[in-house]
Amino acid sequence: MKYQVISEEIRHRIESGFYPLDQPLPDEHSLVEEFSCSRMTVKRALDVLASEGIVFRKRGHGTFIVQSSFQSDYIHVGTNETLGFTSLMKEKKVTSKLISFDMIAPTAEVASYLAISEDTPVYHHIRVRCVDDNPHVIEETYMPTPLIPGITPTVLHNSVYAYMEKELGLKIAGSRRRIRAEQATAQDMEELGLSENEPVLVIEQVAYLNTGIAFEYSFARHRFDKFEITTVNINAK
Amino acid sequence: MKYQVISEEIRHRIESGFYPLDQPLPDEHSLVEEFSCSRMTVKRALDVLASEGIVFRKRGHGTFIVQSSFQSDYIHVGTNETLGFTSLMKEKKVTSKLISFDMIAPTAEVASYLAISEDTPVYHHIRVRCVDDNPHVIEETYMPTPLIPGITPTVLHNSVYAYMEKELGLKIAGSRRRIRAEQATAQDMEELGLSENEPVLVIEQVAYLNTGIAFEYSFARHRFDKFEITTVNINAK
DNA sequence: TAGTGGTCTAGACCACACC
DNA sequence: GTGTGGTCTAGACCACTAG
Asked: How far is the CA of B174 from the C1' of C12 (A)?
């Protein structure tokens, strides 16, 4: 993956200040010479950075660094990532409190999201995820049992995604999410320590394996003051 | 843009049921013959659909249709769109109530988001946007005056984005957003008709022109029960 | 082994921006 | 005109999947 190597190299140069912020990056021809590759490969490397909102490309003009100055005290997740909560909190201690765990027949709605029949049993669990012992999010999850064998309370106390990738060799390919605000329910208040008039950020998600099969339908209800989503959007040319 | 034409054609075929949902799409070689183009072009067309979550590609296996079954009573905006509220509501009547409109010196924070000096004046306006006369969202917006000349209350009662594109010939290239939940403020309650313990979905946005220049910093506070964001995320290979 | 998509090349022509 | 990025070609080799 030469284009990824080049993309990474240029990203590091931008982050380290090697390229001046107010100057265009070297043109594609120069980068072709430097990296000894074809122009398509350089272009693709720069397109990766453009899709991440790091640079901005303008035909007839050049490629420019976009200064992003979004900082925040919130934990934020980009919409380009499909990650479990555990890996988002890289440096921090994530623990889970298992509220319930059972195997049930899915409702028609859950079955349709997972594209399974109502006869296919699903794991159904509810967890409160804590960061440094402070509750952050309450998650309710449905997973078809045939896809994810061996889910146990032990696994649920840690990371299901890590279990899937490391133990089962499954690869997570993507997800669809719906994001909205809701009032805290009684359960939210109790488990997340919210008071009556405080909201939650709800993320409803269907996640897919690299086989195209849906493996998870979940609701995550996040403390409003601990979590936000960030998105970068570049219009198609 | 041959790849976009091919991409659209295949999208239509999928939506119209021309390709069976449970069968792989024709392989790239067949599509090359059908569309009389190079394989790179077909591949790019299919990559567009994959990035939209419409198809799923698997090396050594084929390209498959992903059934998306997200429906909802909410108005939803995809994170791949930078659109004004007006154009989101295609079929509906959008009106605006102008709460305030003035020209001010930006705070240090606003200036930094727009990458301008604190000496550059900005338009500052607050609007309530209504759909079919029901209030949906309250927006507070800052725009550098030199970039967007001729903003008037008349423009603000309609669509600023349409004004920029049609009258000023400016092109909107992209945006960065932060999405979170908050409690409704007194102003939210009054203008959006919310009650005390109901939340809002807050979207903080910096939007960019195709010159890479930020032209807008805004907060939109949406009724929690009228709006949601949808995202599709496909992991990099 | 055969067939699929992923990457890469070395060119070409075009659209756009600036001078 | 000159230089930029956007698109496209015709081929090549590779990695992965299935039988």
From this structure: 31
